[in-house]
Write a structure and sequence with these properties.
The structure is a single chain. With 449 residues, the protein is mostly helical. 85% of the residues lie in helices and 0% in strands. The protein contains 16 helices and no strands. α3 runs antiparallel to α5.
């Protein structure tokens, strides 16, 4: 009986992982398409957009507070068969993220120049950076709403719908980029501004289609009686879970902004190299993300249904798959590194450093694969504070501290910084493995039955 149950869980995991894999692949393709197309425009445009996207990614983590809370709460409520709680959580989540989103949109439009000056963006990159940030930032509220809806659909084992939406967005974005960056079909050649317009328009289309799937496939209506009086308890739960859960990601993103600032101090070539490398490496840990997220949803259902041993077994399986796949894929990319960089740029300095970084990344990916799984799994089980504490302590002392030491003080440049990243990921991985095997997370369930 136990073997049959495990087989059923594995099938559920595969059904979730497939759509999440495709969605994540398409999201990464979206960013890579921008980079590839802008690389034909200039390396400086790639550097400017890379800097802005690092800032935008950090600011957008505000929306992760609600999205992560939604995913964790809904997963456990679904496992506990509390349907009304699911509806209330999703309704409050969308409203909260829409409110956050409007505020962030205004901030990013009116304060773009101050933010980029604070980051020390070089004068020759400022015009492109400012244009991109204002346009993409103005539509932050669209991304906020989309993130809340996508989180609710995934938690209900309906990951295929966000995947379909992302496919639509990619098609729109590729056509928009080609048309507006290079001035095709009678349109003006807008360069970076064209890429920003295409991105903003694609995200707006995505939000509209996600709303359609939410109402047709998940929650047909939001009954007034469930929101009168307003379910402040669910708002409190979302923030109680979401704020610390997003803390680990916020710490990581902020640390990357600081590191990007340091890379900007080295040279434009270093900044462009980092942007190229990140777009390549994203495809390496793609499988870890998809398996980790699907595993976390399954674990949340099992924890809500009071089956911690099954959650532990699934967790071990997911971790093993993620590590093996990531190392194999990173090795393939390292072997093909020179060809990839030659396709992207003819700058020999960028090519030489980029190839070295891809080889360092082979070792780094062991730690990253474990961390992607463990952070998602521990959060989904209700163990929300441990990943935050580990993230803040290790990221800032090892990743940021050693990046400054190796990259700037010792003069090892971008290669030295990547060695610091390698140490950071693997130290955190060792701590997370110990936490998962210790099973302290089994006492952290949010749903009390």
């Amino acid at each position: 009986m136990r073997a049959l149950h495990l087989e059923g869980l594995q099938k559920q995991l595969a059904l979730l992982a497939g759509p999440i894999f495709m969605e994540t692949l398409l999201v990464m393709t979206l960013g890579a398409v921008d980079t590839i197309m802008l690389s034909q425009h200039s390396d400086n445009s790639v550097a400017a957009v890379g800097m802005v996207n690092q800032i935008v990614s950090m600011i957008f983590l505000v929306f992760e507070v609600t999205a992560l809370g939604t995913s964790i709460l809904c997963s456990q409520y679904i496992g506990a068969r509390l349907r009304d709680k699911v509806v209330q959580t999703v309704g409050v989540s969308i409203l909260l993220n829409a409110t956050f989103g409007i505020g962030i949109s205004l901030l990013m439009y009116f304060c773009a120049d101050n933010i980029l000056n604070l980051m020390g963006l070089r004068p020759e990159l400022m015009a492109d950076g400012l244009s991109y940030m204002r346009i993409v930032g103005s539509f932050a509220f669209v991304q906020a709403i989309s993130m809340a809806i996508s989180a609710s659909l995934r938690s209900a084992n309906k990951a295929i719908y966000p995947m379909m939406v992302t496919l639509i967005v990619n098609i729109f974005n590729i056509i928009g980029n080609y048309t507006l960056i290079f001035g095709k079909f009678g349109m003006p050649a807008l360069g970076v501004e064209g890429a920003a317009i295409s991105t903003a328009a694609s995200r707006t289309v995505a939000m509209c289609v996600l709303f359609y799937f939410l109402l047709k496939k998940h929650i047909p209506k939001f009954p007034r009686e469930l929101f009168r009086p307003f379910p402040f308890i669910e708002l409190k739960n979302l923030l109680h879970i979401g704020i610390p859960s997003a803390g680990e990601q916020m710490s990581y993103s902020l640390s990357q902004v600081v590191i990007t600032y340091m890379i900007n101090m080295i040279s434009n070539e270093a900044l462009a190299t980092r942007t190229y490398c990140m777009n390549i490496i994203m495809f390496v840990y793609l499988f870890s993300i998809s398996v980790g997220q699907s595993g976390a949803i399954t674990i949340g259902h099992l924890v809500g249904d009071r089956k911690p041993h099954a959650a532990f077994i699934i967790g071990k399986l997911v971790m093993k798959i993620a590590v093996v796949t990531s190392i194999v894929v990173s090795l393939i990319f390292a072997l093909c590194g020179k060809s990839i960089f030659n396709f992207l740029t003819d700058n020999q300095e960028i090519i030489q450093v980029g190839v070295i970084i891809l080889w360092i990344d082979v070792i780094l990916e062991f730690g990253r694969a474990v961390n992607v799984f463990a952070v998602n799994a521990l959060r989904s089980a209700g163990d929300i504070y441990f990943p935050v504490l580990i993230g803040i302590c290790v990221m800032w002392t090892v990743s940021v501290g050693l990046s400054y030491l190796f990259g700037l003080s010792l003069g090892w440049g971008l290669v030295g910084m990547w060695i610091a990243f390698l140490l950071d990921e693997n130290i955190r991985a060792a701590l997370f493995i110990k936490r998962w095997w210790g099973m302290k997370w089994t006492t952290k369930s949010f749903v009390k039955q």
